[in-house]
Amino acid sequence: MEDTCHVCGEPLDEIYPVSCISCGSRVHFRTAVSAENDCCRILTQLSLCGLAFICNTCDQHTTSP
Ligand SMILES: [Zn+2]
Ligand SMILES: [Zn+2]
Prior knowledge:
alpha+beta
């Protein structure tokens, strides 16, 4: 089963994929490499028990009116 990242379009095979809390798409989470090149970022929400992620696509929609 092959999946591709919703943000960069590269395969999600060896990198641990996470699901965007907004659109549900699976994206890379590779903050260990470079936060600037990451396909998503961590959201911390008190209503959730744990970490949530938002993909760069949704992040841009929410930050720019
Ligand atoms: Zn990606
Ligand atoms: Zn998203």
